[in-house]
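re: ur question from yesterday

yeah so i grabbed the chain u mentioned. its 210 aa long if i counted rite. heres the sequnce exactly as i have it in my notes:
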Amino acid sequence: MKTYRKTSVILVLLFSTVISLLYACDSNSDNNEINSNDKAITSADRDALLFMLEEEKLARDTYTYLNDKWAINQFANIKNSEQTHMDAIESLLIEYDIDYSILPMGQFKNTELQAYYNQFVVDGSVSQLKALNVGATIEDLDIVDLQEYIDTTENAQVISVFEMLQCGSRNHLRSFEQAIDVFGSTYVPQFLSVEDYNAIISSANEKCGQ
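ran it thru and got these structure tokens back, copy pasting raw so excuse formatting
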């Protein structure tokens, strides 16, 4: 009788151990899948998000500086839109658990963007017309860079956010072009092709994110 009881206890313990191990394996498997899905982003997409966060900051910081200098409506309004663009990219960085930091006004990790900012504030301080041309140049650059990243990613969330930002940049470019036209001048595209630029400014403002 004692041998029977001992055997029964051993069998029960073995059965419980097997069940526990199977449950643990299933739980670990589920967690791995969740983590994998939450962080399903390529290093190229990560780099694109980090770069565009700073490029949108370039626009915000430059427009803030030029608005303080000239108090032009375009800069006052569009600098707030650029903050919204930064917020949209930040939301993806947070969602994908990507480390990032935002430097103080006028400071950039990317040396090319830092050089752009330094030159833009010098050029934009010459006159109101020069300042508006700086604004158009930034939007011109933004549209082209966003398109390059859109063309090379397969991440639907990244594409959606970048297309929304690009839409906003096209509207901003139209606004700067109209202000430049008031001065009797014309903006010459620095990054867009002449054909693409003309197609943008000859079309109506868009409703972005809809």
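noticed a couple things. The longest helix spans residues 2-38. also The helical segments are 2-38, 43-70, 73-95, 111-124, 128-152, 156-182, 194-201.
anyway ttyl
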